Amino acid sequence: MGRLRDRYGASPLHLLLVLCSFALTGYAGVRLLDGDTLGVVLWFVGGAVVHDLVLVPLYSAADRALRAAGARVPLGSRTHDEAAWREQINYVRVPAFVSLVLLLVWYPLIFDRVGHYASYTALEPGVFMGRWLLVTAALFAVSALCLTARAWRGRRALRRARRTGEA
User: What distance in Å separates the CA atoms of residue 92 and residue 165, rounded to the nearest whole number?
Assistant: First the structure.
């Protein structure tokens, strides 16, 4: 087991889960493209190429821009602590990531690209854009509430520490 962990870099359970996820994704691709083997291969290779050559640079640049903007933001009378900003930036990253994954998975419905899904979903094709926007707004709202609660607890703990003379 130790040799496998040294060579692979993670536990055997991780390797098993990765292989199972590839098998499930392959099965879904074959079912989706209904026996079009070339289409399945092109879909997987195209997905990997688009992700690595287009999406990774885009969200890396967006993340760098967000970090740079946060490093210059003054917070009250003191300058913004970069470590605190690194923790707080996740309250933007997570809902943005989930929203973009939902958009990537459901873009044909969201952008009304395929009409035949209406018979499968029993919904009008035009409702999906509004629903995706509502889900995105809800994700950011919940994230903002979590950040507010965290900041409130932090201030409360700081006040308590000051009253007891620990700060």
Answer: 35
* DSSP annotation of 80: P
Q: What is the largest CA-CA distance in the chain?
A: 71
Residue 161 · residue 167 · CB < 8 Å: yes
Q: State the total domains in the chain.
A: 3
Which of these, 58, 142, 70, lies nearest to 100 by C-alpha position? 58
Tokens representing residue 42 in the block: 């092109």
Same domain, 133 and 159: yes
Residue 109's pLDDT band, with cuts at 50, 70 and 90, is confident
Signed CA dihedral, 155, 161, 164, 167: sign only: negative
pLDDT of residue 78: 47
Q: Alpha carbon 59 to chain centroid distance?
A: 11
108, 117 contact by CB (below 8 A): yes
122 and 156 share one domain: yes
Question: What is the C-alpha to C-alpha distance for residues 161 and 154, in angstroms, rounded to an integer?
Answer: 11
Q: Is the dihedral of CA 22, 24, 28, 30 positive or negative?
A: positive
What pTM does this model have? 0.61
**Structural domain that includes position 97:** 89-167
